[in-house]
Amino acid sequence: MFMRRKFLRAQNVKRITHLSGGLLLVILGMNLAKWLYLRRNFRTQDDIWVSKQTLFSYPRISDSIRIACSQFRLPLWGEVFQSYRKSFPRKHPDCSEFRSWISILGDKVVILNSVGDQVTCNFSEILRMEEGYYIMLPVVMSNSSYSLRFTDVLQVKCRNSSSQKEWAEVIYAARKNPAIVTTSTNRTPDFTETLRQEHKLPPKVELNVLVWMFDGISSSFFLRNVPKAASYLTNSTDGVLFRNFNTVGRNSLPNMIPFWTEHSCAIARLTHPFVDTGMNHAEWLEPTKAKTLHVDDLPPLLISDYLRSGYVTAFYEDFQVIDAYDSIFNDPGKYWMIRNFRKPPAHYYSRPFMCNRFKLFKKPSPKCIGNLRSSTHAQNLAQSWWKQHEQENKFFFFNQMTYTHGSLTELNMIDTELEGFFESWMNSDQVRNNTIVIIMSDHGNHVLRNETVLEGMLDQRLPWVFMLVPPWFDSKFPEQMKALRSNAHDRLVTLYDVHATLKHALKGIDETYIRRWPGYSLFTTVPMNRTCRTAGIPANYCGCLREIDKGVPFDTIRNVTEQSIRQLNEHVLTKFMKAEKKKATTTANPISFPCTNWTLHAIQHYKVVKTQGSENTTGTDDIAFYLISFLANPDNVGFKVIIENDVTNSLLRLVVDSIQMTKNEGLGYCIRGKHPTLAKYCCCRQ
């Protein structure tokens, strides 16, 4: 009996084990089927997020129906960005490993005693003649020190005759050019004593301007990466954060041209929302002309206006490379690329230093300049120049690309440092009492995979812009400050407006500012009924969207997708043939087009959105945007595109800049060498 019970118990255990195993297999099978379904229909995690996302899930920055264009208040750590959260905190590379042999004291370079008494250095100042052309001035040998006489950039090569060790560096010294003092007739008034006298200020106020820019970061990006610095600005200063700020283009160039010139970088075309509005389309920036232009050929820059008014000026960019991404003016979009300045745009200009340091070290550590962090180097120079010219009016522009260009997390490396810099210097009496400070970006991040995800696309259109004005503005300019805070709270604002604001500041804030479309001075009230069209924002970059997925037949979506594929094929063919004809030395041999045409395989998912307000030339709100993911033959390649549809004018346009592809590595190998920008859209016939 006992043995029989034991046998039955064993049988039951075996039966339960089989059932459990079978149940486990069923669960695994169901998950596998779900994964295969998602894989077949969406292919990437981004696509899964897109299929879930809806505009209705995001609250708007303003709920007031009187605000015609209000962007979305995005979650700081939305699902799209969760994967980056594990990257925090980021540790900065150790720059102290690079031991310096010299010390820089203003315009004097001193050889350190700690490197030995057998050290001799060759000093050669670097003179910039024009873009890409530099002259090394005669070498001066010394075993003690050297004082800069002609330029701010110096190449130093040292040798210890005892140890036979060698050391080299290119340095950027804070040299005070005596010519600046004689040409700068204006003097920045000291308001410290006046502030004590109940704000009885002089009638004409001449202000300094300090613009500190981080390339390619959104407002959410800034808050995620530098929470300490952002918290200090928003909670411990009386500055204003522009909550409804909208980018006007994808790359740096179409955004910074409005900032510097108040002109548009847009190319006039029938589908462009600026047509018939009287806007200057800047024909000097057409694709066929742009690559032969220097920045000097553009309309006068804002910094030139300040320079002519006697201000000491600085133009600093921190990218230590010599390629297409080394400047905001050399940003290689599909349509635009401008050469840099023929002549230096400012008294202090960093490009000679950055280019020559790159030449010396070939591939310098991007986040270190000598034994300093790249961020620290920029901050030290700003403070040194500011102190040297404390009696002159100043316009300083600093652009930090090192920590933000192509990364969503590296800015976090300098969070604590930025907080200290903002607190100890930018918000000090030395700066704040007589300076307009703008901490800003030009656009959100666009080079990573987030742009075709709805949340990422909206995030890209909302850059970080924060402004500090002197504390006595409230008592001297109460109406202007009321307008500034109102504009920052919920009005649609762009870089056209920042340009107009700084022009207004140069003329005098208490003076009447005559605006030029489309910019408003932010010291005047921006209308609540302002839309993307009236603000100068191309419709495909407008962040004030509303979703209209319902009621759009799938046949329409298929037709739109097929038309966009035809446009892509025509785009590649036209660009290729045009480039080849220019290169051809003879017309005897016909030009062979090596790419095959794409054809639609399957539509994965789509969204249809419109901008708020009347956003086209007819004023009937009939421009829609299709966000479509599809698979195309050959090779079943995944595409994500944005398509602009102007129903009234029967115009459909593929936004080429928006195209993202999966599984396209190597497909365009046959033209990659000669046509790198087209290669990613090409599938070679062989």
Automatic annotation (TrEMBL):
One Pfam family here: DUF229
Listed name of the protein: DUF229 domain containing protein
A Gene Ontology term for the protein's cellular component: extracellular space
UniProt-listed PANTHER family: FI08016P-RELATED
Domain of life: Eukaryota
Protein source organism: Notodromas monacha
